[in-house]
Amino acid sequence: MKFKKTLIFLMLLVFSLSILGCSKGTSGTEKKFKAGKYTAEAKGHNAPLKVEVEVDDSSIKGIKILEHKETPGISDAALKDIPKNIIDGQTLAVDTITGATVTSNAVIGAITEALKQAGGNIEELKKKGKKEDVKKEQITKETDIIVIGAGGAGMSAAVSAAEKGAKVVVLEKMPMIGGNTIRSGGAYNAVDVERQKSQGIEDSIDKHYTQTYEGGDKKGDSKLIKILVENSLSGKKWLESYDMKFNDKIGSVVGSLWPRTHQASEPAGTGYINALKRAADKHKVEILLNTKAIELIMDNGKVVGVKAEGEKNLYEIKSKKAVVMASGGFAANVEMRTKYVPSLTKDMETTNHPGATGDGIIMGEKVGADLVGMEYIQLLPMAIQLTGPTINVENSIFINKEGNRFINEDNRRDKLCEAILKQKDGQYYMINDSQIVKETNELGDKISDLIEKGVVKKADSLDELAKAIEVPAENLKKSVEEFNKSVDKKSDNLGRKMWKGKIEKGPFYATLRYPAVHHTMGGLKINEKTQVLDKSGKVIPGLYAAGEVTGGIHGGNRLGGNALPDTIVFGKIAGENAVNEK
């Protein structure tokens, strides 16, 4: 009897253990998921983003991005690194990618939904593991040219130096190249007389010079402006030699003052960066991402290298020839911009990427560089939530919330913003018709997606549009009617000078817009060779600069479409001259 009881007890024990074993995987590990492949989606920057997640009983095995319409270049790091980091750490508690926060959150959100379907414990998966302190390795290296910043100016400098046979290292603190250039509207001002003439546009180098100089309140350096306008077209052709494409039609952008704008064919500024990356790869330029320059190394008054910090390494890089500073402006640095313009507080948004914090200006100051025009900070009158401009200004009118036009739309950017901020809520509506609103804007956003998000309002009639944006219909219709008469007369009581066509063919579109901090015109003072100058006007040996980190080119106001030629022209010059440094 006793033996029988013992046997029954043992059988029950084995049975109990077998039940417990059912909650484990075949390897004896805890069962966390129902094995299989799961798909899910989340709202991305431009459209829904779809993923496929593969799991076994105990782990996340693979993640694929199935569909997305995120902006190329800007989103690349988020699409690649976040799935990898989630798999490596077996956790959802991963950092977003700086500069691609919306895409990062979309990827994490879609993966989270897929793991929910797989029966995962989301709260547990969101717990962050203990982060180990990693001792960074000290690396010393030497190269011919060091470029700080991998935006349009930095990449142009790197490529032009490498074209001349120099060994080049580029330091970029962000996880992707591109800077503000890749986020731009892609507009490039250059006088191309023959092409403009074939499109009925009269233009000249002198006109571009005069408009740039006077448009900057005659505060820009005339020698630098001359270099800009005389070399913009050759800079464009240089980009085209690396297979960059531009649209055939020449137009204008807000604040450009004249139709000499060449629009990149690829979305936003991706065409510029893609072309420059192809060129950099061809010439074997080394680019270190997630690597922040922190100090210029000096030797007897000459800049001879850079100290930098990466994710895993500390660098001390010596330059045999020179350093090119191309780290961008400071529109994303609230403390720095309010130092020079107190009204530009944190309440005012910026169009800039989060890395535009003025690092190069600060480093330059520490080695004695002079600064110029720091108080000149431009607002972009075209900023809107979630996206950027959708069309050129030539076929548009701006109305306030009473339905009335209040300024000539082809005015300077600073004058436009000044007028906008006087309107109700500091906002206005941009009105267009079907003749110029394309399926996709220059940033790659589909108009249908913007309508779905509520960013753009669409209606078959002006009455319906007025109702949609809650402005008096009579005022809106009167504004459009008077504008159309002005198109016929080529004369406008608000002083408009650029005309393309009437607003008369539905459907009609309206976009709510407001100013945002856009471009810092001040920075390091340079000469015509892009050498950085000290406070006595003397050259700081071994230090060159180009792009928005510099000051003195645009004066008190930058013309729309002049920033990209600035980065390309002066970046190219900086690289060429840096190679010749003794």
Automatic annotation (TrEMBL):
Keyword terms: Coiled coil, FAD, Flavoprotein, Oxidoreductase, Signal
Entry-linked Pfam families: FAD_binding_2 (PF00890), FMN_bind (PF04205)
Cofactor requirements of the protein: FMN; FAD
Reactions the enzyme catalyzes: dihydrourocanate + A = urocanate + AH2
Domain FMN-binding: 44-118
Top EC group: oxidoreductase
The enzyme's E.C. designation: 1.3.99.33
InterPro entries: FAD-dep_OxRdtase_2_FAD-bd, FAD-oxidoreductase_2, FAD/NAD-bd_sf, Flavocytochrome_c, FMN-bd, Succ_DH/fumarate_Rdtase_cat_sf
Coiled coil (UniProt feature): 108-142
SUPFAM superfamilies from the UniProt entry: FAD/NAD(P)-binding domain (SSF51905), Succinate dehydrogenase/fumarate reductase flavoprotein, catalytic domain (SSF56425)
Transmembrane segments annotated in the record for this chain: none
Gene3D superfamilies, per database record: 3.90.1010.20, FAD/NAD(P)-binding domain (3.50.50.60), Succinate dehydrogenase/fumarate reductase flavoprotein, catalytic domain (3.90.700.10)
Signal peptide: 1-21
GO cellular component: membrane
Origin: domain of life: Bacteria
Record GO terms (molecular function): FMN binding; steroid dehydrogenase activity, acting on the CH-CH group of donors
Cofactor note: Binds 1 or 2 FMN covalently per subunit.
Family as reported in the entry's similarity comment: Belongs to the FAD-dependent oxidoreductase 2 family. FRD/SDH subfamily.
NCBIfam families, alphabetized: flavo_cyto_c (TIGR01813)
Name of the featured protein: Urocanate reductase
